[in-house]
Structures are given as C-alpha cells and as structure tokens.
Amino acid sequence: MKRFHSRAGLAAAASLVLLAAGSASLVLLKNQTARVAAAAAIWAAAAIAIVLLAVRARHRERARQAELDRVEDRYRALIDGLPLVTWLTELGDRSTTLYVNPLIDELTGYSPAEWTEEPDLFTKLLHPEDRASVLEELDNVKNGTPVRLEYRLIARDGRVVWVREETTTARDSVGEPLFTQTFLRNIGERKRSEDERESLLAAERAAASSTAERQSRLDLLRRAGDELASTLDHQAAVQRVAELVVRDFADWCIVDVVDEGNELRRLAVARAEPRAGGGPGPDNHPESGVRAVVESGRSEVVPELRDRSSSAEPVQFIGGIEASSVICVPLRARTQALGALTVARTEPGAVYGADDLAVVEDLASRITIAADRGRLYREVEERADAARVLDHVADGILLLDRSGVVRLWNPAAEAITSIASEQVVGRAAADAIPGWQDASDSVPVSTTPDPGHDEVVIPIETERGERWISISGVQFFGGTVYAFRDLTDVRQLEEIKADFIATASHELRTPLAAVYGAAQTLLRHDFALDEVGRDRFVSLIADESERLGRIVNEILLANQLDAGRLDIQYDPFDAGDVIERVAESTRAYAPPAVSIEVNADGDLPRVAADIDKVRQVLVNLVENAIKYSPDGGRVEVGVEAHDQAIRFHVRDEGLGIDPEEQERIFEKFYRADPQMLRGVGGTGLGLYICKELVSRMGGRIWVESNEDKGSVFVFELPTADVVAHGGTGTGRLQFKK
Ligand code: ADP
Q1: pLDDT given for residue 1 in this prediction
Q2: Is the Cβ–Cβ distance between 262 and 339 less than 8 Å?
Q3: Which of the listed residues 687, 704, 709 should we mutate to test ligand 1's pocket, taking the one with most ligand atoms within 8 A of CB?
Q4: Ligand 1 within 6 A of CB of 557
Q5: Regarding predicted confidence, which is higher, 61 or 560?
Q6: Is 11 exposed, middle or buried (0-12, 13-18, 19+ CB in 10 A)?
Q7: Which of 506, 624, 661 is the pocket-test mutation for ligand 1 (most atoms within 8 Å of CB)?
Q8: In Å, how far are 226, 228, 271, 370, 708 from 237, measured between CA atoms?
Q9: 404-408, 561-565, 672-676 — which one is most confidently predicted on average?
Q10: How far is ligand 1, taken at its centre, from the CA of residue 719, in Å?
Q11: DSSP characters over 334-378
C-alpha cells in the first residue's frame, strides 16, 4: 500500500513536471505552432499519465475487494465452525438478527433463517420460569455492558436446553459500536452433572444424617445398657434409662411393671426437656392400651406401620398425652409378663417407623434382663439369708430330696453328729449316716410344719460316743426336712436327778430309820434300859437328826444359791484361826482311822470373805475327805499365801478321783459313784455348794490328784489388802462397818 502511494506520487509529480514544461514552452517558444505542438505533446503526455494512473487505481480497488471477500468468507467459516452459537444482532435489539450460525438449529431446532425471520423467537423460546428475569437483566445492559447469563430455552421439540449466554458489543477500529455479538453455549451437560452432584450431595447429607441418627440410637442403647448393668437397684436404673430415652428419641417415656401383687403399676415417667408439649402427662394408673400389650405380649405401634395416612390425628394411647405416634413394647422374661415400655412423640407428623420399634424392643429386652437379674439377685440374697440362718441355728437340719439323697446338712448337724457335711451332702442318707436306715422308720414325719408335732428321742453313735437326739420331720413337695436337737446333756441331767432322788431318799431313809428305831426302843416299857443304854439311844437320835438336818440344809442351800438369795457378809478374818477350828470340830466325829492335821503358814494376810461360808466350805471338804477315806488315812487342812490370794487346801489319802471326772464333780447332783458301789452315800450337792460359795466370794476352787493316793481340794480367796485396793475387780464385795 505504501508502495502504491509512492508510485501514484511519482506519476503525479511527472504529470506536474510535464504540465510545467508544457506551460513553460508556451511561454518560451515564440513560434505559435511550435507552442501549440509543444502544449499538445505535453497535454497528451499528461493525459496518458493520468489514464495509466486511473487504470492502476481500479486494478488496485478490485484486488482489495477480493481480499475483503476472502476475509469475510474466512470469518464466516470461522464463526460457522465455532462450537457455540454465534448470534449477531443490531445494537441492543435482539429482534433484528444480522447473522446467526447454523448451530442455532442444533440448539433450538430452529434454522438460522427462521431465527432471522421471526423477531420474537428468542423471547418466545425463553423458559417461562426464566423469561422475566432474563429480559429484565438484558434490559439493564442495553448500553453495551458485557452480559453473562445462564437460563433455559424450550427447543422446538419441547426439550429444555440450558444455555450460557455471553454478549458483547463488536466495535470498529476506532471504537465505534458496530453490532451486538451473542454467544450461546449449551450447558445442559454441565447442569446435569451439577444436578447430579447436588443430588449426590443431598444423598450424602441424608446418609450422614441417617448415620448420625443410627449412631445416636446405638449410643442410646449402649448408655441404657451401661445404666442397667451398673446397679442392682433396677428401679433407679429404669428411671435413668427413661430420661436417656427422652433426650433424642421420644418426648415421653413411661415404664410400667407388674408388682408382687400381680398389679400393673407405673414405675417411671420421663418427659423431654424443655418441657415437651402434648398434654399434661400421664396419671399414675397404666392405661388399657398398656394393659393389653402386657397381657398379649405383642408390641403396638400407633399409627400402625402399614397405615401412615392417619398420622394427622393425635394418638389416644396414654391418657394425658396428645401423641403423634406411640410405641408400646411388653417386658417379658421367660414368658412371664413383667410390664411394658412406652414411648411417645408429640410433634405433629413425627411418626415412629420400623427402625424405632426395633430400638424400643431392644431397650425393653435390656430392661427385662436387668429386672430379671435384680429379681434373681434378691432371691439369691433371700436364700443366702436362709442359708445363713441354717448355719447359725442350734438345731441340726437335714434335708433329703425325694430320692433320699442328702441336700443339706448344717453346721449344727455336723456338731451334733460329728459327721462333716462333705461326707453326707450328695449321698444317700442310708449310706452316709450310720444307723439312719433303722432310725428313720421311727422318726415321725408330718406334712405340715405346725408347732407341737411329735418328736422321738433316739440314740445315735458318734465319734464322741452315744448321743441322744430328739428328731422330727416335715415332708414337702421336694423332699423331707428333718430337725434334731442334742438331748444328751438334758438326758444326763435327768438321769442325775433321778439318781439324786434315789440317793437322797436313801440318805434320808437311813438316819430316819435309825432315829425311828431308837425312839421306839426308848418308848418300850417292857424293855428296861439302864442309864447308859438310854443315853446311847438319845445321842444316836441326836446324831442322826443332825445328819438329817445337814442333808436338808444342803438341799435348801443349793436352792438358795440357784435362786440367788444367798446373803454374803464380808468381814476380813484370819485364815489360820478358821482352819484350826474346823480341824478341831471335825476331829470330834472323825473315825479313829482318820487323823486330821493342820498345816498353816504363820503371819498370813487376812482374808476378805464371809467367815461362816468359808468355814462351811472347809467343813464340807474335810467331811468329804473323811467320807472318801474309808480305810482311814491322814487328812491335812492347810492354808498359805499365794500371789495376793490366800490358798486353802484339804488333802486326803482316800479313794481319789478319776482325772476325767475332776471337772464334773462340781456340777449339781453329780456323784462319781451314783450307785454307791464304793459304799459311800451323798447327795452330790456338797461340792456344787462349795464351788458356788467360793466363786460368789470372788475366789475359785479345783481338785488335784494327791500323787498316787487320794486327792487335794484347793480354793483361793482374795486378801483384804487386795480387795481394799480394788484388786479383785469383782465389784461385789462389801465390808461390814
Ligand atoms: P456327795 O454328797 O456325793 O459327797 P459331793 O458334791 O460332796 O457329793 O461330791 C461329789 C462327788 O465327788 C462325790 O460323789 C465323790 O464321788 C467325789 N468326791 C468328793 N470329794 C471326794 C474326795 N475327797 N475323794 C474322792 N472323791 C470325792
């Protein structure tokens, strides 16, 4: 183009030079003809130059047009080939289409020609829901501001096509607006994937929320399980579980249980906080709906799982609660009805489904297990109490099952029979208990445990020798229970009493017979007695009466001791004096073969006791020593100080006492030789009285063997010093003023 301009300039310059040369020649040449010829030549040359120039310019113009056409064709091919609809319209006026590429057909089903011819087609194709907003938006940007919009078009075949529009104003090289250029892109694919993504997200959210819900239910079940397992107080645990239930799962939770009297009662009621609506709440009496569930053992969901249409109506299941939905599940353990668990929602439309029923049934089974465990625990406790009682009763208890096998053998039974429970429990009584086979036939067995039923006293052989037991049995559905007591000691006491009566009557009868005989002799007139004879009978009467009196006194004194009526006067005295006087008085009637001697330490502390009672004890012991020394011998009465006490003893060389009897001879009525085989009589009361008197004066008495011959009776009493300083601790001693 520059070249073209320079060449045209050269041609114009040459023309101007030629014109100037022609004009100069006109002036310079004198010859007219020459002037004309020169001018003509110059004009001709100029004309030729101008024609050449014109031809050249036209040629140039044509080439430019061809170039333009080629460019437009290329532009058109370019925009036709663009993968998006290109739509050119007059500035700000969509009704006048300048150009639209063929892709419009693919997008809308309308050809470019139809698009060009129908001015309102665009508006018509806008989706009714988007139309107003799109037009308004476009109106706002008529001034040429670039626009970006997404909206829907309805294609000819009714398809909804999502498009993205980008509109700009095309301008020329100096910035003047030429036309409006709109690109429409089909974004259906993207929208679909967006929708899909959205629905995937929604599904994910739903899944997350259902996971959260499932998690919260699992949490509820776990925490309820923990509560129920943590305590045996299932009543408190059930209340806490009800409170857990109303945190997320329900607005009300009610637990009803069947009590011991077989009555259904309300155990726990919990309500969601903040206070759920739906009525004032249930009263204390389980409703008929709950009763029906407990009786039938079948869960109830209201509204029913199959019929969800009636959920608008409030559910009338629990009085006092306007529920939108209720689940009531029975609590059952091993076919036994224990109660019911009821949950209710009050929010309108909040209806329980099958999943919720499963949760409530799970909770109910946990509560049931806890309640059942609590009941079993209580039963075990009660049985343990019963077992403890059986462990501590003094009566032996033997439980035989229906096949005669020992099921229970308590510690008292072990103690009485000396048979350990391991040796008998689980074995047949006939094999395990010696003599049971024979004895059981004579044991009375009643069918009711009424008091006062028959008992028999039978002997049994044990390691400790023969024992006498009183036994009876009661039969029940599961077997027979026998109770027995050891009557050996009672029996022995009875035997001793019987012996006492025999001995005492013998003891009484002998002096009585002597007194009677002497008196009769004295009364006989036909039988002349000299002075000496009469004295002999009178003193015999006196002696035997005294002996009778002693026996009667012993019996009376023993009675007084038993009744606690004995008065003891404490007055410190000298022990040496007392034993001297006792020895003296007993010597008077001791047989010649017996010598009575005194062995007393000098300068003894005084004794804090009742002098008469001490004398009585000593006399008893010395009389026994004489009595049980039938072959005579030495009887020593002694006293010594011994470790803050005064120790008295009476030593003889008589019959002696078997070591195993040394304890028993101090028992009431006990006599080592009840049948008087050794020919010595007595009541069995003397040593009993001695022991009681000594112990009441704060002392003690015992017997020792006197080496290989005879025995030594010893008793100790506190000294006056010790008593005055409170040393004996008996607290019973009072001194005469
Ligand atoms: P009894 O009136 O039978 O003598 P006691 O209570 O005085 O009653 O004595 C109980 C038993 O103790 C006597 O039956 C006797 O067997 C035995 N006994 C008591 N003192 C002596 C003794 N000094 N020597 C041997 N046996 C004695």
Answers
A1: 40
A2: no
A3: 687
A4: no
A5: 61
A6: middle
A7: 624
A8: 9, 5, 16, 9, 78
A9: 404-408
A10: 28
A11: TTEEEEEEEEEE-STT----HHHHHHHHHHHHHHHHHHHHHHHHH
* Residue 568 exposure: Cα atoms within 13 Å on the Cβ side: 24
The tens digit of pLDDT for each residue in 48-89 reads 888 888 899 999 999 999 998 898 888 778 877 777 899 989
Query: In the Cβ-directed half-sphere of 190, how many Cα atoms lie within 13 Å?
Result: 8
Of the candidates 436, 391, 388, 442, the one whose C-alpha atom is nearest the C-alpha of residue 414 is 391
- What whole-number distance in Å separates Cα of residue 467 and Cα of residue 492? 10
Closest to 484 (Cα-Cα) out of 400, 393, 395:
395
Q: Which of 557, 622, 628, 650 to mutate to test the pocket of ligand 1 (most atoms within 8 A of CB)?
A: 628
Q: How far is the CA of 536 from the centre of ligand 1 (A)?
A: 30
Torsion of CA 142, 143, 148, 151, to 10 degrees: -10
Which are the contacts of 111, defined by CB distance < 8 A and separation ≥ 6?
102, 104, 105
Checking if the pLDDT of 545 tops 50, the result is yes
516 HSE (CA, 13 A, CB side): 6
β-pair partners for 476: 479
Both structure tokens of 541: 């009467």
Sign of the four-CA dihedral 109, 113, 115, 120: negative
- Decide: helix, strand or coil at residue 548: helix
Identify the H or E element spanning 165: strand 160-171
Mean pLDDT of the chain: 85
For residue 652, give the ligand 1 atom closest to its CA: 23
> How far is Cα 165 from Cα 147, in angstroms, rounded to an integer?
7
Is the Cα dihedral 168, 172, 176, 180 positive or negative? negative
Sign of CA dihedral 58, 59, 60, 63: positive
